[in-house]
Amino acid sequence: MIGQTRYPHVFSPLELGFTRLKNRILMGSMHTGLEEADNGFERMAAFFAERARGGVGMIITGGIAPNAQGGVGSKLSTPAEAAQHRQITEAVHAADPEVKICLQILHSGPLARVPDCVAPSAVKSRIGTYRPIELDEAGIEQQIADFANCAALARDAGYDGVEVIGSAGYLLSTFLVQKTNLRTDRWGGSWENRMRFPVEVMKRVREAVGPDFILIFRISAMDMLDGGLAWDEVVSLGKAVEAAGANIISTHFCWHESPVPTIATMVPRAAFAQVTGRLRKELTVPMITSNRINMPEVAEAVLARGDADLVSMARPMLADPDLVIKAMQGREDEINTCIACNQACLDHTFGGRKQVSCLVNPRACNETLLTYPQADQPRRIAVVGAGPAGLAYATVAAGRGHAVTLFEAGADIGGQFNLARRIPGKEEFNETLRYYRRMIDVHAIDLRLSCRVDAAMLREMAFDEVIIATGIEPRRPELNGIDHPKVVPYVDAILGRKPIGKRVAIMGAGGIGFDVAELISHEGVSGAVDIEVFAREWGIDFKNHPRGGVTGVEPMVAAADRTIYLMQRKPEAPGRSLGRTTGWTHRMTLARRGVNMVSGVEYLKIDDSGLHALVNGEPRTFEVDTVIVCAGQNPLRKLHDELTALGIASTLVGGAFEATELDAKRAIDQASRLAAIA
Ligand code: FAD
Ligand code: NAP
Ligand code: SF4
After folding, report:
1. Annotated catalytic residue within 159, 170, 436, 565
2. Topology, domain 487-523+558-631
3. Contacts of 81 (CB under 8 A, 6+ apart)
4. Which residues line ligand 2 (CB under 6 A)?
5. CB 319 near ligand 3, within 6 Å
6. Delimiting residues of CATH 3.20.20.70 domain(s) in the chain
7. How many CB atoms neighbour CB 432 within 10 A?
8. What are 247-273's pLDDT values in tens digits?
9. CATH code linked to domain 2-328+337-350
10. Residue 38 pLDDT
11. Greatest extent of the chain over all pairs of C-alpha atoms, in Å
């Protein structure tokens, strides 16, 4: 196989003595929401089996609590619960007997959303719901026993191993850190005492499962907390859990409350692997690294450098279940790459929406519900517009056997993704376009670029079906002076078609307003492609690894050589509509660059002296050279209306269907679902 020569490290097996992993890529743990869904076990079985067939060496399930206080939503503490898990392990082993599957044991501690949540001390987390109850000696013993019981039941359920999560602000890690462990008994105080609980858990789990069972410990190798773990503590914890029976250690790089992005789009690929590499030199068991490793060549480079023995890919396995097999077969240009947007995965988990999926792959976690079977009767379908909606529709429909012609007015495919990919931090959007370009070839889609379609053309070509994916047109607010030369639509600003002055007002603080502010306040290399720049921007010291890995001083961010006002009419603070798990990073970055956020604006007029407005009722003139308009969008349905007038039926998708609150997640999801039944 090509993969073995192109990715020799990825495709070399890993011997663990009693068992063997067939390659070095594992699917990392993710809570998908299926754990609590109707038919959840059936759906999880299908979800994991599809990834097993896709070539991954090992799978770690989403977190399952060892008891009700663990507060994850799904627990494993009884034989009846273990019996349900058999569906998962049997499906995975049937898909490929060589693939290993481990259950992650997650006790959320003070982050559990249950009123009787527990912790070493009654310290409420900034992001927790309840103040936890301080565990007494008997309570601690019970928790340890519950971990051991859960692991033994996992073995009974057919799992090949368990992963115990000792990081992220969950129970085990709160024993380790001084600010969450205020105890003075043998479970707190000195480092040896603070380490006792996780080490005891590991010992007792090992006793419960025996020697021939994979036992992974997830360690906070860099927790990004002011006052977090020092490097020598990380090393001594690693050694202690090794001695307690771990046969793999997996590095984790955050607490959920740490103010540093560790997996979002603006994090460079494999940025944190160097930390695993340093820890690997101190320990003897195989080590897993993770975070922003989304393509096989990145995994290969990490392994070849000696930074890790195994690479964990979690979200990339939502984006493409066949990632590993495609690498193996030399089809890496067909990989649907995770763009680290978090929009359909972590934003759903943390935003209260139960079910996870993927922006670029709506089938993720819907394997039993959304399928793309071969069409009974292949038809000739015209798709007009090659933005995300049109591309998704064309790809799914052609994959099902329809003859698809894809028309695009522009010189290239992509629609608004051609704007998004130019924003520093959104470089990964290029991968989605590469994927679709390849799919157009694979499925023999007849692509007509630089071809603006009108109703007469479509009538003449007499397709069986017409899909209108023509997207949107930017909204142009009715405002005195909107034609003034200093007014620039966001499309022209992003494409650099018009000069942008030193003093700028941005009208509209939605996703695009924020992106434009990022673009024009940015200087130099994007932190998303340069680990040193990223580290400087977020105050991380990879080299010296101070406590928590963070310097504690205000991070250095490239100063914007501009005065920028980011404005909206709503009275609330701008940025509420941004992603749940990423919005804070954008707000923080712009604040550090000195971008002025202005809410409660009533725009009055634009003239030579600038933008005149009322701000919370007070008149104010913003003396700016440029006004960039990011005031939302309207659907572009002209073609649909013309066809309707000719009596030709057509189907609207994406922005053409509905522009309000449209994003690529909705556009791709809607188009894929429609194409699945075409
Ligand atoms: P479009 O992308 O607008 O595509 C429509 C296509 O139709 C265009 O290529 C157009 O040329 C073509 N077309 C129009 N009329 C015709 C015709 N008559 N004949 C032939 N072709 C025609 N979304 C997210 O989810 N996450 C993000 O992080 C994100 N960031 C963004 C950043 C920026 C700067 C911008 C501008 C948008 C961003 N979006 C993001 C929004 C996302 O890009 C859109 O929601 C998505 O592109 C909508 O897809 P669509 O296919 O409906 O429309
Ligand atoms: P948007 O999020 O709806 O924001 C439009 C902005 O314009 C708002 O600030 C709105 O706030 C303002 N506005 C609306 N009508 C106006 C008018 N007549 N005059 C002046 N201001 C007006 O839309 P967008 O920024 O254009 O983004 C389009 C879509 O792309 C969004 O749905 C977004 O989800 C998606 N996107 C997502 C991301 C991401 O990172 N996830 C990034 C970019 C884009 P006020 O009404 O309060 O002024
Ligand atoms: Fe990756 Fe975005 Fe899909 Fe999540 S939603 S898996 S971050 S592409």
Report:
1. 170
2. FAD/NAD(P)-binding domain (3.50.50)
3. 75, 153
4. 343, 475, 477, 507-513, 515, 568-570, 577, 579, 630-633, 661-663
5. yes
6. 2-328+337-350
7. 25
8. 999 999 988 888 899 999 999 999 999
9. 3.20.20.70
10. 87
11. 84
